[in-house]
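Hello,

Our lab assistant flagged a job as stuck in the queue for most of the afternoon. It eventually completed. Since we weren't sure the result was trustworthy after the delay, we are filing this so someone can double-check. Below is the sequence as submitted and the structure that was eventually returned. Let us know if re-running is recommended.
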Amino acid sequence: MSKLTDISYVRGVLSKHGFTFSKALGQNFLTNPGVCPKMAQMSGASDCVGVIEIGPGAGVLTAELAEISHKVVALELDKRLLSVLSETLSGYDNIKILNADVMKTDLKQLLKEEFPDGEAVVCANLPYYITSPVIMKILEERLPIQSLTVMVQKEAAERICAAPGTRQSGAISAAVHYYSEPELLFKVSKGSFMPAPKVDSAVIKLNILKEPPVKVEDEQMFFKVVKAAFSQRRKTLSNSLSSGLSVSKSVISDILLSAGIDATARAEEMTMEQFAKITELLTCV
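-- returned structure --
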């Protein structure tokens, strides 16, 4: 068992460096010895595939990734953890720690500099409050990566992986399925962390697609349609699109009729193909 999953050891190192957990940064460090090895193995990291890790915390997942990858570049926002990581990861020479905010980092340039061969994956234990922004930044920038493996709140994982056209689907589901093939790998109980969060987590993997599953001429409009459709889930698709896009109900009704969609349908019933068809017809209005 790694010493980084020994709660007494981790507490000792954190105390030594004067570190206290920040609720604002959503800091919950993994201590379950079975989680990180499994997550690292399933991430796609290998001798020839490098890793960008987001939020290494005390370094428990970082160490596991370094065991199987030739190089790990970890972005840590909290500068207080730099000295902690220097100690906990001192036995590795293939880890590079950067004090950086992932939302302000040019990830494409970072990948070009650190992994010029283009073989890389992203892996992260994301704070709940920043899950969607980080995932969408990585997907929308179309980074040259094979996959994105992240630990998120269980409910968020289920929503992200939900197939469009199913009850649990939402705007994030459609966006994720546009750029990748998501899969829910395994669930992680709240007791696996220090301090323990109030809810359970899950690890998901987004396998990046070379081409979107549907063809749209105007991607910006496609995502506007998706966002508008889910903006008022209790309303019919017709009403949500009309108010969300500022288009008259009569025009929306005609579009839905042309697309073969029932006027009383709701957003969660729509497939990617139907969203694409609505987008296509809207651009002709």
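-- support follow-up --
The delay was a queue issue, not a problem with the job. The result is valid. The CA atoms of residues 14 and 84 lie 7 Å apart. The longest helix spans residues 219-230.
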